[in-house]
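Risk register update: the risk of archive-format incompatibility is retired. Evidence:
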Amino acid sequence: MAYLLLAILVLFVVGCSSMPTTRTPEVTPKAQRRVVAAPTGALSFLSAGDASGPQLVFVHGTPGSAEGWIDYLAEPVLPGWEMVAPDRPGFGQSEPEAAVTSLADQGDALVRLLATRRGRRPVLVGHSLGGPIVLRAAIDHPELVGGLVVLSGNTDPELERLAWYNSVAAALEPVLPRSLRNSNHELYPQRAELEVLADGLRGIRCPVLIVHGAKDSLVPLANTTYLRDALVNADTELVVLQDHGHLLPWRAERELRDVITTFVNGVQ
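Archived output:
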């Protein structure tokens, strides 16, 4: 029993791509929760900032939720912009109850939030598994995406590996909370999903900022070389944060705010 409890703990701590912050929507009045209809069902999201301005959209990894980005919504990264953070399908308050393992389906749900405003298309920020999801959205819906920021993204199929705790989680599925159960379901087909993604990367033509921690032990830094080489028709920029690991949105918030602001101001 002690081993099983340890396995669950490791899955939760090591497998998490999003971490909660001290703020919640209840104590951050500027962040409003809304719902839109998506192909996967109701898609719940938080928004803050200028509702009539261009959009900066934050997409969490696995597991995770919109609340993981609450600091970026409470203190908007870009004045005059709307900050948007969805609960991805299968997580938080979004439908369905089960996991949505297809990157294309995740991307199709995401674009239901997007709108071009003041002549500017949205910039999508994806962390960890959110990285390949925003790339998929840009491949399938290029007319809706003005730029991409890929944070700690797992993109190289050859580097995609399941960990020992994934098989433990599969065995414990009946007792796992929805977020961990769906996260585990998302990870099993990821290698095949990334192989499909690879076929479309050359079609991305919008500017792409790749940000990765040099000390990332969950998603190898070598993913950045793969992605940069694959984006042959995109204007790409790579920023490596030498003193950081996988949890960039929470461990390197100041640096991220700076590089995102510089990137967006440069491409728009």
